[in-house]
Amino acid sequence: MMDNQESSTPSEAGEAALTTPLAGPSSQDAAAAAPPGAENEENEDGGENEGSEWDDEEDDDDEDVSEDEEDDEEDEEDDDEDEESTCGHEKRQKRKKPMPSLLALAERGILKLLTKAVDGQRVTARYCCGGRVRSLPPTTLPFQDEKPRKVPRLTMRWDDAEDRRGRKIHFPHNDSPSGSRTKLDTQIETLADRCGVTGLLDDSRFSINFDPHFYGIIDVITQVLLPGFESEILKGVPECRGIRAKLSNLQVRSAGGTAYRPLPAHRSSQYFGKLIVCLPYPHKGGQWEISNDGHSSTIDFSHSDDNTTLHWAAFVGDCTHECQPVEEGHQLVLIYNLFLCQRIGEVLRDNSTADPTLFPLYTGVKEMLEHPGFMKKGGVLGFYCQYPYPHVSSNTAKQLPSTLQGVDMVVYSVFKSLGLSTEILPLLDLSPLDEMDETEYEREEECYHSDPWSYVDDYDFGDDFPECESCYPDFPTFEEWKAKRPRIDRVGTKLHSLRFSESSEDAEYIREVKEEVLEDSWPWKELFDVKWLNEKPSKGTGELALVNTFSGYGEGTEKFYSHPVILITVPKLVDRELAVAK
Fold first, then answer.
1. C-beta of residue 193 within 8 angstroms of C-beta of residue 330
2. Which of 130, 149, 281, 368 has the fewest Cβ atoms surrounding its Cβ within 10 A?
3. Which of 327, 357, 387 is the last residue of a domain?
4. How is residue 397 annotated by DSSP?
């Protein structure tokens, strides 16, 4: 017995202490020692004390029983948890993001390269540009008014100081093909000899009937290179800035000539850059290397079979340039200094003198589209315009894309020249409706916690949803929930004017209903998974496009803004045929 008592647990010992009477004299001993007549009093007192003692003991017993029941319930819950933990399901793990495929990684890498090329203010597409202007043979000169972008026969007059006489050269030559070649070569060789070691003829010694302003070259330079150019000139009103060109030199470079000397920069505070115009004379070699901010572009004027086209290129003043040696023939280049000035007149809308193949961005885009891993199934590329354009007006369609500037014009013209469908459309910003997403999220979360299986049926959660409650996955956070929803961009079917709509009370609680009301007034098309090449502009940069009035729990108006974007439709790889520059 002693061994059993000694081996009792602390809980058993505590229960024994509560149910055992305290040690003291017995009732018989107390009765024998009591005086006569005190027995009844003691019995009465003893009865009262005895009754109160048992009442206390009964209360303690009730508390013990309730505590035992709670302990038993907790033990049962622990047993249930132990049983559920062995239900056969694996331990729930944290959700992991799905691993992208190799094709997706390759496509993402190519997109990053393109994004890097077009992002920011000083991208590769912004330091140089070029194009060509076709000259007319003499037999078509009477029709030059019908095609003002074509150049009549050029005549250059220059002073021969050695022979003390004036000379002139025609481009293209008007003699017979057999004789003109020999005579023109002789004239060019004489000119090259008079230019000496430097290969330069000062503008005071020659003249030519060619004006880059008239043929739209300066307008192209103004549209492409000027918007991102940093200068104190007209800084407060950059939209009023323009460019003027001043002829500086004629440069003649010949095969076997001396090493090339870089063109000096002008010291004027208004200096912008250089314009070089290559006259139509066949030669080989002599490529120009234009570099800026670690990027480089090669401009090749050597077109041996084309003696009727003037080629030109322009670059900003902080560029460095080098020239490869001329391998055959002579390269004749008109050199202009470009200066900032107050713009006079409108920019011509016809930019046919620009050649997108000479934009530094062209080669990178072409290689990207030819890559077998890029957008194999096709899709849509998007580019947020970097400059504001008044696109919510009745005559907007006539202004764009002619009024595009800087990198916007470069991106549009490069993709367009490759034969891809390229559009400028307004993107509607529906961020004022984001609060309705939070309401929808809270509703789905409540449904999930109250009846998970109904949620699975309603929202197609998946076939592998666990059966036991302990294995249910956590409901996603708002950010995770929103990320799983398909990204939809609402793009106008055309460039709309300012529209107005009115929504009912029902539309204030369900986003789909509200969107139907808005779409009726501002027609759009939904684009899924657009691959954007640059970051979305900050709020407040768009133009007011749609005003919605609503009633119900209060009255008010909602304002929606649109932003012009360039959308490029990329065909499937098997159907992708890029246009070849002519």
1. no
2. 149
3. 357
4. H
Our CA dihedral for 304, 306, 307, 310, rounded to 10 degrees, sits at: -110
Query: Is residue 214 in a domain?
Result: yes
The answer to whether the CB of 135 falls within 8 A of the CB of 308 is yes
Report the DSSP beta bridge partners of residue 382.
532, 567
**Which of helix, strand or coil describes residue 261?**
coil
| 405 close to 223: Cβ distance less than 8 angstroms | yes
Number of domains in the chain: 2
Which runs of consecutive H residues, i.e. helices, occur in 23-140?
A: 27-33, 39-85, 102-118
131 and 233, same domain (yes or no): yes
The answer to whether residues 435 and 302 belong to one domain is no
- Residues sharing a CB contact under 8 Å with residue 153, sequence separation 6 or more, in sequence order: 135, 136, 137, 138, 141, 170, 171, 172, 174
Q: How many angstroms separate the CA atoms of 266 and 212, rounded? A: 19
**Mean pLDDT over residues 54-80, rounded?**
51
Residue 80 buriedness (CB in 10 A; 0-12 / 13-18 / 19+): exposed
State the pLDDT at residue 165.
82
Helix (H, G, I), strand (E, B) or coil at 350: coil
- Residue 308's domain spans which residues? 124-357
Q: Is residue 161 part of a domain?
A: yes
H or E element: which one contains 238? none
Residue-wise pLDDT for 518-548, tens only, equals 889 999 999 988 999 988 877 667 889 899 8
Indicate left, alpha or beta for 338 from its phi (over 0: left) and psi (-120 to 50: alpha). Answer: beta
For the sheet with 165-171, list strands across it: 165-171, 154-160, 206-208
In a domain, 510, yes or no: yes
Task: Return the structure tokens found at 287.
Answer: 């490529």
391 found inside a domain: no
CA distance 158 to 160: 6
Distances (CA, A) of 471 to 76, 81, 94, 97: 20, 12, 12, 19
User: What is the average pLDDT across 121-145?
Assistant: 60
Q: With the C-alpha atoms ordered 137, 139, 142, 143, is the resulting torsion angle positive or negative?
A: negative
**Last residue of a domain, which of 357, 383, 400?**
357
Within 10 Å of residue 284's Cβ, how many Cβ atoms? 15
Tell me the C-alpha distance between 317 and 405, whole Å. 19
Pair of tokens at residue 61: 């017993």
Amino acid occupying residue 313: A
- Which tokens sit at 296? 């480089």
